[in-house]
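S.,

As promised, the zinc ion run. Input:
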Amino acid sequence: MSILIKSGRVIDPANKIDAVLDILIMGDKISQVAKNILVADAVVIDAKNKIVAPGIVDMHVHLRQPGREDKETVATATAAAAKGGVTTVLAMPNTQPAMDCPQSIELLQKIIKKNAVINVLICGAITQDRLGDQLNDIVALKKAGVLAISDDGSSVDSDAIMLQALKDATQAKVLTICHSEDKKLSGKGVINLGFNSTRLGLRGISNESEYKRVARDIELASKANAPVHIAHVSCQESVGIIAAAKKKGIKVTCETAPHYFALTQDDILDYDTNMKINPPLRTKKDLLAIKDGLKNMTIDIIASDHAPHTENEKDIEFDRAEFGKIGLESELAVSNMELIDKNVLSWPELIEKMSLNPAKVLGINKGTLSVNADADIIIIDAHKEFVLETKKIVSKSKNSPFIGRMVKGLVECTIFNGKIVFQNK
Ligand SMILES: [Zn+2]
Ligand SMILES: [Zn+2]
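Predicted complex:
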């Protein structure tokens, strides 16, 4: 089947294209990008006044399967992703069992093959059961199909093990992704340390617990001459440390998530546990530093850190509730409102950070609308406003801090591998 997308504003940062064009899809590939394409027998999608862009590559997603199918499954998460304009996700390894051996990877691959409606890539664990004690066989994980390794949810405390992991990962040509958190410093904290933690009577998490570990992870990567990717950057000091490391030529990339440029600790005043996130929502000063980092290229990537939890795990006291929030269905709209409407980024720059850059960092051939590229394409109505409602959430868990908010920027259609996997009706 061929699909012809007519008269959309085609944004393809890889080829520096931002123009009104048609795109012809033949089979699973992009066959032509030009003005006024004429074909006899294609399904025509009118994209007039809409944005046409490569599908989002979200490199930080918790699918929860295998093990916690009560929170989310590959089927529900990938359906949510398709609705959010996401055509590739990198699945984090903190499943049950953890993705720490080829057998577990194979198990998940089978589930993906059967249930996923978009592209799902797997991130292996750095250490056995993500406990930080015993380094996994990274070459074996690579052979089983992982593109990256991380103990996300935890940081590897031992310098020696982390250094060896970076060396092994580089040799195996997989990316090391760091959840940079010094647990000795963050302890039992549940919210950003500051005025609000005192006022609400909740234990605080300092910026120090993040940026000291960011500095350590970068130092070890530099020692190993290994590329390193810092996950969910949330505070001003981390942005500064990463900027300085980039200046020195250290191979560091990083991501932030929409909640760190859309929300602050001041949004938690009513003890909304959907705002309980790790790292925590910080201050206005940190939020502005994140926006600056996105603008000045220190922060390469926006990823959701989609972290579904059941109602039982969230609808309880703030201290006891799980950390994390869902984000696949809102990341584009929230980014549009906070970054494009507020003149932090242009549309091509946003697409670069949500699609092209993560594809480059993961070393995959995605994130572009080049001729012969995989036909992973989204059509966005950038001006369409809508309220995020619980009943409309496709994800199995509903723990979004944006529920009830008016957002702007609706995904009208998501095409993956040349097939329409989501269409707004
Ligand atoms: Zn993490
Ligand atoms: Zn995570």
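The first helix runs from residue 74 to 84. Residues 152-153, 179, 231-232 surround zinc ion (ligand 1) (CB under 6 Å).

- D.
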